[in-house]
Amino acid sequence: MTDYKKRIKVLAVDDEYDLCWAFETRFKKEIFDIVTVRNGEAAIEMLKKNKYPIIILDSKLPGIDGFEAAKIIKIIDPDTYIIIFTGYYDREDKEIQEGLKSGLFYDFLCKPFEFDDVKRMIKKVIKENISKNS
Amino acid sequence: MNNIRNDIANNGAYKKLCNGIMSSIPSSVLIVDEQLKVILANRNFYVKSKRSESNTVGRSISEIFPKVLVEYTGITEKIKNVFKFGEPNDGGEMEYRAPGLPARVYYYRLAPLMNSLSEVENVILLMDDVTERKHLGERVRRTEEHLARVVESANDIIISIDPEGKIISWNGTVERITGHRSVDVKGQPLLNFLSESDSDNFSSIIKGLLKKKKVSAWESSILNKDGETVDVSWNFSSIKDEQGNVIGIVIIGRDLTERKVLEAKLTQSAKMASLGTIAGGIAHEIRNPLAIIDSCAQILEKQVDNKKIRALAPEKIRNATKRAAEIVNNLLKFARQSEFTIESVDIHQIIDATLELMENQLSIQHAKINKNYDFNLPEIYANRNQLQQVFMNLILNACNAIREKGTIGIQTYCSENFINIVFEDNGIGIPGKYLSRIFDPFFTTQPVGRGTGLGLSISYGIIEQHGGSIDVESESGKGARFIIKLPIRNKFIRRENL
Questions:
Q1: Do the Cβ atoms of B363 and A113 come within 8 Å?
Q2: Are residues B314 and B463 in the same domain?
Q3: Which end of chain A offers a freer environment for a tag, N or C, measured as fewer CB atoms within 10 Å?
Q4: Where are the alpha helices (DSSP H) in B91-192?
Q5: A32-90, pLDDT tens digit by residue?
Q6: Looking at this predicted complex, what is its ipTM?
Q7: Interchain CB contact of A110 with B (< 8 Å)
């Protein structure tokens, strides 16, 4: 019974400080909590301590890149929904299509983006998947 | 009247001497009287004309020579004039064909034979066979004409100068390229038609040739009538007399305009190909600041009353805009088909601009850049855009060589008169068998569609054009090291300072 009171944690991973700031500022008063980190290694460390059912993950990161980080995240927590967040690829690109088909990625978000789209994606995940399970 | 004949008839010894002289004269000789009748002919005449004394002596000139010949030479009139005025006549050429023999060309002259009263008693007709000489002359003329045509019709510039450097001749191609006619430039120093900056080089080449040194090809230019330079590749060779002294110099030049245009096109295509490779990276580089700008705008829309946001967001927007604009500027600077402008450049600044453009490419390849700059490096005169193209090629190659993770070292330092730029990676290296070929055009080990095989050959050309060199050291599996040497005082300096 305690679960539904718990707010969903969303982790955004991007090496741009200003984008992290934007995520935190825009999603301060949402039904989910947003947490940001600047690289893949930090994201993995966070995941070891906490559960983040939704992760918005930049495809190009210093150190291990988004694709690699996504695979490690799925190993640590296969239930995590990863939204691949990129300015480098388009949805049609092979790398993205393969990730979507294999279930590595839940969805695709291209830079620049609409916060409303991000919110819709997150809510959809919560509604369709996480709420049912909990 | 017929004194000579009488003398000859009356004096046996004299007659013998005369006959002897007449026979030994290599010319054909006829002596005619006032009626234009032959009174004497020498042996040479009989042999050449295949006639005998009986059908010659006593006959008229017009009977002996064909009618056509008599008409076109006007010989009878000329003989009559000699009788009349007592002056020799230089005659001219006649073509005479004895029956059954090929035609021969004679040069004939007429001279009066005077008696003791200074009256013209007879006229002597001397005919010299000039057939061989004429044929030889004709051959020489034809050969000369042929050679002149070869020189004239050559597509290359052909100039001959004397040892003082004055123009003896130049062919039609130089006339066409420069607009100066050959007759107008004859005797002028060739230096007048070269750029001032080339004069030292040219003079030392000529000096070398006069000292019988071998001189290699030289690329410079020639000035046209409007004072514009036309790029030319020159080749020199000396003209020697029989004693081996240099009496002139032949200069053959090839107009490089067309080649330069093709080279520029090739360079541009290679540039575009490398742009294609980094295009994705550039897209990401621009989309990131765009994402920041867009997010901040969206936040401002929602929370315009939030003081903190109102202070922070515009600043972030402006920073991101600057970043995006800088990337676009860099990109345009690189992509633009640049005029070959030479300016004083800071090598480090060019390398850094290149790295900025390739930042994403480097992060995709997990390439770490290790800069080791010598900050005492002087600025040099160079074409910024071309050097950037070289650096981009080398960094792209290094990126490709680094399969997983690696480091690209960029080092600069000064040595004597050169600045050295070293690009070093710890990638897969270049197998020994490829080392000698990597600067060849179209040589690539990349699959079709990736890499044009032009990058390094164009880089090589660019560095060479700057008077420098580019070398490679590598071993399979042990990374590669490209060393660029650029002269601090290069040919561009002089051009600039003039």
A1: no
A2: yes
A3: N
A4: 131-153, 172-178, 182-185
A5: 999 999 999 999 999 999 999 999 999 988 778 899 999 999 999 999 999 999 988 88
A6: 0.90
A7: yes
